């Protein structure tokens, strides 16, 4: 093996492993499935040029895995293999010809739509669901039983008593995916690249209530370990699973010739956008289950099945303009305004450019011709500009140095990717900032929600955070569908908010990267806003949970005179900017706590407040730095992890009560 070829293989393997990590564990792919498969094909070709001895010299290649470090896992009774892919009818024909040559006849083939979701494995014993796991690395899966049960998408009991692994795909319908991303965008949360990533990111959430909101669905079509089956073909298996109560699709068809199979693939490639869920191809399988067993597997894939993958549709259109949007936290996002083009089932006229770095990578000029795809067939993405078609005198699109709304000088986050408007009173940010300020975990102003904030802004009654405390309640009482009683209730809630402690006020200000827990730590460490505002990055870093990014954000925020004016005005209006000590004792001083499960004597938040009042610290996850895990009824996965983590003491609610008074 030449050194050059060895380096090529090593480099390509490393690139594929990086994309596996992004796809399986981070749910954040940066290339399409087609581009990924091209890399895999290129690697196979390079490795095929080696002789057997040279291939054995290569180290084992990492397998793509969705397993997270520390996650609870269960081995699959039968391995979950990956499918080989074909991207053209010629490649599919060759696969069919090889199968025919091996068997001596063209076997009946069943074709199913390839739903773009997350593979799932269910295990039933004595007719009862025992557990649910993800594909993991094919050999071992991550446990997601609680979330599958919470979704209510599979039966708890079935009329088949023999042990059986039932396999399928968890997915999110297109319309639910779009609504989820819209909500996340409004909350300035990272949006999902496509429905598959949304499903993968959702099924592993620790909060089952949040999982239920994601509207996940599933279809089932395969078995792993199975005994005493009443069916002998794949097509009958799907029907049988439906009778047992599992969701299935009715789009599978049986074929006895290649032309008919090809027509099915072509038809669904054309009609795929008419479906309520995303498909990225067709899966073709030998229908006879005994024949499947005889054909067996290669090291990675079944010989009796293959995926016919649809190529992502690309269109060319023209860039008309670049606009810049400002979100709640001040993040400035460039958006490409496009000449409308119909692609992958809908007309597209806008596409996000993410940040300044992406604009520079694409070398965007106004008037450019651009190549466009829909990432995951959903989200418009500009692949490249076409400089050879660039109009004469076309002007390069430039990222602004000042906020496009309030003209404040933009600042960069530490990683340099995102630009922010630091002005807390920027009109573009104001609606969301006011909502955040009044929210339950901040100032808790009941009644001051999204719709009323919008009306107050529309009427010009508020233009900054301090204006909340300067409202004219007589004018408010005259608002349509509001009235004197509602105005009086709002007045009472606003007055009561002045009693909130400094940490709540600090959180309410909406400083980037400063959450409720961090705000509490800062307020208790510095005591008042003057000491906090005067602190440099080094002093800030002495506070628990304050890293370089948080410290830089705080220094920048307090350096802005507009923000200092907001603090001064709120202080003059009666808000607390000194932390009242809530310490009852120091019995838990220096100890860290985490609660899992529901408690009998108080809500989780109330108990966390009591822990802090006795000097303890509440953390968000199990690690070697955790001292006590408090276990209530129906504990989550934190308990299993704590049992494996040296130094963590697992205690009951009653034992915690004893610690309060010790």
Structure description:
The chain is an alpha+beta fold and 662 residues long. It has 5 domains: 3-57, Helix Hairpins; 73-309, D-amino Acid Aminotransferase, Chain A, domain 1 (2-Layer Sandwich), CATH 3.30.470; 315-412, OB fold (Dihydrolipoamide Acetyltransferase, E2P), CATH 2.40.50.140; 427-572, 5' to 3' exonuclease, C-terminal subdomain (DNA polymerase, domain 1, Orthogonal Bundle), CATH 1.10.150.20; 592-660, BRCT domain (Rossmann fold), CATH 3.40.50.10190. The chain is 38% helix and 19% strand. Helix 24 links the parallel strand 21 (628-631) and strand 22 (649-652). The longest helix is centred in the first third of the chain and has 23 residues, at 3-25.
Comma- or semicolon-separated keywords:
single chain, 662 residues, alpha+beta, Helix Hairpins, D-amino Acid Aminotransferase, Chain A, domain 1, OB fold (Dihydrolipoamide Acetyltransferase, E2P), 5 domains, 7-stranded antiparallel β-sheet, 25 helices, 22 strands, 38% helix, globular
Question: Could you provide a short overview of the structure?
Answer:
With 662 residues, the protein is of the alpha+beta class. The chain is built from 25 helices and 22 strands.
Mean pLDDT: 87
Number of domains: 5
What spatial form do the alpha-carbon principal axes imply? globular
Rounded radius of gyration (Å): 29 Å
Q: What is the number of E strands?
A: 22
Q: How many helices?
A: 25
In percent, how helical is the residue content?
25-40%
* Secondary-structure-derived class: alpha+beta
CATH architecture descriptor name of the largest domain? 2-Layer Sandwich
Question: Biggest β-sheet, characterized?
Answer: 7 strands, antiparallel
Query: What is the beta-strand fraction?
Result: 15-25%
- CATH homologous superfamily title of the largest domain: DNA ligase/mRNA capping enzyme
CATH topology of the largest domain: D-amino Acid Aminotransferase, Chain A, domain 1
Contiguous low-pLDDT stretches (5 residues minimum) are none
- Quaternary structure state of the chains depicted: single chain
Distance between the termini: 69 Å
Please report the first level of CATH classification, the CATH class of the largest domain: Alpha Beta
